Amino acid sequence: MSEKVEHPTQIGGSGRSSEETAVPPAQPQTQPQSRFGFKSHKSFKHEKVENDGYTQRSTDPNGYTPPKGNGAAIAHVEGYKRQELKRGNTAPHKIILQEEDAPEALGYAWSPAKKWTTLSVIFVVQCSMNMNAAVYANGVSFLQDKFGVSAQGARVGQSLFLICYAFGCELWAPWSEELGRWWILQSSLFLVNIWQILAALSPTFGGVIVARVLGGFSSAGGSVTLGMVADLYDPNEQQWAVAFIVFSSVGGSVIGPIIGPFIQANLSWEWICWVQLIFGVFVQILHFFLVPETRSTVLLDRHAKKLRAEGRSNVYGPNELRPWRERFTVKEVVHTWIRPFQMFLTEPIVLCCSLLSGFSDALIFTFMEAFTPVYEQWGFTTEQMALAFVPIAIGYFLAYLFYIPPLMSQRKKLRLDPQGTAPEIRLKPLLYLAPLESLGLFGFAWSSLGPPKTHWIAPMIFSAMVGIANYAIYMSTIDYMIAAYGPYSASATGGNGFARDFLAGIAAMYASPFYTNVGGESSRYHLEWPSTILAIISGFVTIPIFIFYFKGAYFRERSKFAMTLAGERQGRNVHRLEHSDNAPGGGKTVEEINA
């Protein structure tokens, strides 16, 4: 015998209950579609609930049951699923939209063309931010001449920018979660551009340092740009986008030393700043006109306002009913800011992956100092020195191409068994590519003997190997932490970005003395031993990659963050929609994929 189910009042409807609905016996579930053609997150069946004072509740076929209390009821209302705060059918109620209620309003439902247009602009934005950190090194001689400071003193501006950049990324990220990505990136780009003007026109070296410090704190960086990737893609479908944004991050750091020598040879200190400003204004304009808001809570707020304008007066976005004083309490803000550092210090996976990634990024800034004395042996001019960095850029591009086959294989496995595929699969490419860092540094060291013993092309080839490893380390560690920590991935990857920028800032200060003083300039191998030391260190730092690949489950089982995520996935089977799933009949079942 079928059961009768009363449906609550529809938004904008007549207020009458629906027809009697038969609930058939449990059968294999298929993914239902709303009347808009979108697939719902989960299949629900409705049950008559007695003696709880509410109209109906919903039971997930996977076994997850929403909690009772305060009149919680989940209903289908004009194609949406939403949680209603309601007691019986008498009191007015407010509906708060969640991600699963309006998938068509979110970034997940955007077309591939719109997503990749957005990502392409973010690519250029990230290149601009990282170039600001790197090109400063070519202005050191200008600062010496203009302000009478030592070379080591002039490098303080680069070091402080990177260290403040590390903290700036973490300070901006929480606000992007609350206010939206678009306003935060526009604000960040605007402030960075303003500080470029201060650095260029400052009559004192102290003013330059203040401008660099403010510029570092004003840079939103990877925490926000990677957050935008999470806004557009399901964690199991975002590898292509993550690889693309990581390419922009490492690529931006090498743009500076490629264009910097031409400025150094032909222009002045002011043009070091003007070039950054011109690039910054260009990307800000691109972002202003071509990048829409991606943050899901902001998009739901806008969608709720649209529904209210259409007469659905009781629909609200997730932030609309939260007073500002509750959203931005000191306790909440401090807790959000502290979490990345908490995970960095207490989570072995985050700590080791971040230190590995940070050390690899610091190598690039160490190279900025090492390349000059190395290639001067072959008589490289200032402009020719720029060409010495091209192999690193080539290494980044090759690494990006190397990741295509393993990413295709990973996506196939994740589509077939998203819950049963361990996050450690994302570290597999790193087993082969990470050792190139140590090998590349050894090769670079002992091919730097100069003429007539070696040709200048040899250290360039080995520096390309270091570039491949640097990209791979950043890409795989970020991808792994996103998979392992889920909703906590912003904090986990925040620790990764913090380590990269912070250690690079330190490297900017020790690189030149390291290559000058280790072994002494009079030593026969004074350029070879510093790179050899770095190669040995890199060999030890890459060891945790193999430990986590084979024993990662052991560490995740002892992580409160990773276990919380595992419990949620098992209990709720959450899946975010992709555009290919949103067209009627566009998605495929496991059986169809296997066929």
Task: Briefly say what this structure is.
Residues 1-72 are annotated as: Disordered. This protein has 595 residues and is mainly alpha-helical.
CATH topology of the largest domain: Growth Hormone, Chain: A
Report the portion of residues in β strands: under 5%
- Number-wise, the strands total 6
Can you tell me the CATH superfamily of the largest domain?
A: MFS general substrate transporter like domains
Biggest sheet features? 4 strands, mixed
Oligomeric state, counting identical vs distinct chains: single chain
What is the radius of gyration? 27 Å
User: How many structural domains are formed by the residues?
Assistant: 2
Q: What is the name of the CATH architecture of the largest domain?
A: Up-down Bundle
Question: Helical content, roughly?
Answer: 55-70%
Apparent shape: globular
The DSSP helix count reads 25
Please report the first level of CATH classification, the CATH class of the largest domain.
Answer: Mainly Alpha
Helix-strand blueprint:
Elements lengths: L44 E3 L9 E3 L12 E6 L2 E6 L9 E2 L15 H23 L5 H8 L3 H4 L1 H24 L1 H21 L3 H14 L3 H11 L6 H28 L2 H22 L5 H14 L5 E2 L7 H4 L2 H17 L1 H29 L5 H6 L2 H13 L1 H13 L11 H6 L1 H12 L10 H29 L3 H29 L10 H14 L1 H14 L3 H13 L6 H4 L7 H5 L1
Parallel strand pairs: 5-6
Antiparallel strand pairs: 1-2, 3-4, 4-5
Helix pairs in contact: 1-7, 1-8, 1-9, 4-5, 4-6, 4-7, 4-20, 5-6, 5-9, 7-8, 7-20, 8-15, 8-19, 12-13, 12-20, 13-19, 13-20, 13-22, 15-19, 18-19, 18-21, 19-20
Pfam families: MFS_1
Protein name: Multidrug transporter
GO cellular component, one term: plasma membrane
